[in-house]
Amino acid sequence: MDQAANLRRLATERDRSSASLLEPEQESSRIEGEVPAEVAEETSNEPVTTRVIAVTSGKGGVGKSTLSVNLAISIAKLGKKVLLFDGDLGLANINVLMGIIPEHNIYEVIKGKKKVQDIVISTSYGIDIIAGANGISQLANLSDTQRETFVEQLGELSGYDVMMIDTGAGVGANVIGLVMPADDILVVTTPEPTAITDAYGMIKSIVANGKEKSIKLIVNRVPSAIEAKRVADRLISISSQFLKTKVESVGFVFEENLVQKSIRSQRPHVVLYPGSKSSACMSHIAARVMNTAPAEDSIGIFGFFQKLLGIGQDSEPGMGVL
Fold it and tell me: What is the Cα–Cα distance from 195 to 212, expressed in whole angstroms?
C-alpha cells in the first residue's frame, strides 16, 4: 500500500472514530434538550379527547352486551386505553360477563357517597369498567347544581382514548338519551327478521332525533359471510331510501358454540378463544371502527355527560332526557 493510500485509510479511520465519539455526545445533547418530534408526539401533555362509542340495538337478545365486552377488549389490544360503561338500566350485566363483582356503582357517585375514581374497576383484560349503571335513572331527580357537580366529577375520567357505552335495548327515552350524545353509534342486529326490523326502528329513532353523526352496523351471530352481507345490504339500502341517511357496515360476527361456552365461564371469548373465528371477527371490527376518523365535533366524556343532562349552551335539542 503506498503512502497516499495509507494516509487515506488513516484519514477514513480517523473520521469514523471522530463520528463515533460525537454520536453519544449528540445523543446526550438531544436527550437533555429538545425531545425528538416522533417522541414528543407520543409524550404530549395535551389532554386526550375521548371518543365516545355507544353500542345499542333495537331489541334484546342479539348479543349486544357480549359484543360490547369483546369489542372493548379488542380495541384495547390496538393500544388504546378503553373505559367500558354499563348503561343498560334494566339488565346491567357487563360485570357478570367478565366474572367481576363490583363493590360500588354510579348511584353512589350521584348520591355523593363515592368519588368517580372509586367506582372504576381495572380488569385483567386490559380495560376499565363502570359496572351496573342503574343509578343513571336517578339523574332526573338531581338539582341543577347537583348535576353540574356530578358532571365535573365525571370529567376526571378524561385520559381514555375510548369510552364505550353498552346501552339498553329498544328505543326508550333512557336508551336514546345515552345514544344521541355519542360520537359513534354501533347498531347491533342478527339475521332474525324481528331483529332486522327493530334495528331499522332504532336507526329511524336516531335520525328522528337529529343525529347526523356516524351510524355503523354490526351483524351478529351469522352462519356465513353471505348472510351477513345480505342483512347489512338490506338495512343500508332501506335506511338510504326511506331515511336519507348513510349507515356503514363495519363487520359481522360468526355464530359459534365457543361464544356460549365463554359466556358460561364468565370470560370474554376473545381472551378464552383468541384463535376462534368470532375472535377474528372482533379484531376486524375493532380495526374498522378505530380506522374511521372520529367526529370533528367530538367533545369527550365531559361534553358527553353535559349533553346527556342538558347542561351548557352547546346542548342539542332532544338532549337532557334523563
Answer: 23
